[in-house]
Amino acid sequence: MSELRSIFKQEFMKLQNIEGIKQSFIATNVDEIKKIFGYIFVINYLKNRAETKRYFGAEYNMTFSLLLESTFALLTGQCRSSLLLLRSAQEANFRFVLERERELMLRQDSTLSFESLDFRFIETKRKFTKDLQNSIDRGKFSDYYNSIERTYTLYNKLSGVVHSQSKNMPVMSVEYFSSLHKETIIDKQEFFNLFSATLNEMFLLTFFMLRESLKKWDSYVLFDLLIILYGKKRSQSLIKLIKTFEINNLEVE
């Protein structure tokens, strides 16, 4: 086992010592919780690593704080609240990556102009896709564009769950979460699928945004990081994609 994966394992074990977390809940859903924790661990690693931390800065603090609050809410039984916080983290991350991409584009071409951003997710998505075409070919790097589309789909699904008026009020507590009824809006597996899928797209958008730094990493180091989240084939395909991005000599202060 690599040193990085060993550290991840140690950090996951520390969850047992966090006050308020129900260890029986983690034990029952250990694979799902470990997957969720993996995204938090990897994003935090990138946020603090010397080569990539300059891409984040104070502007990212709110996004990461919401991620931590969402995960803590899940682990303490506030399952419905965790999805609401996750949606807020998703919104903040989506806007952050777009704003960072705009900064990178302007360093390459200071004559570019962009539409102002508002708080409508669908408009942010439209502007994201439009702006990205200034620097990244849509056909060659469809994974990035597809992640933007999937993020919007997941945002709508999260909105549907957290604003549901069902009298059953599903996913409200650990106890209820462990035995959801069939007639509820979302069952346990769907809940975890939604949570993990949202984190996955948040990570991918960040991953693509970091491409100029990541392409310079040793492939084995990058593989050790990605294997925490993905299987061998997916990890290798992401590395190959990053390594083929055209160099545009942009630097982030």
Largest beta-sheet characterization: none
**Into which percentage range does the β-strand content fall?**
under 5%
Question: pLDDT under 50 segments (min length 5)?
Answer: 167-174, 176-184, 247-253
Q: With helices defined by DSSP (H or I, 4 residues minimum), what is the helix count?
A: 12
| Alpha-beta classification | mainly alpha
| Cα-based radius of gyration, to the nearest Å | 19 Å
Number of β-strand runs? 0
Mean pLDDT: 86
Helix content: 55-70%
For the terminal residues, how far apart are their CA atoms?
A: 35 Å
Query: SSE order in H/E notation?
Result: HHHHHHHHHHHH
Instruction: Assign an overall shape.
Output: globular
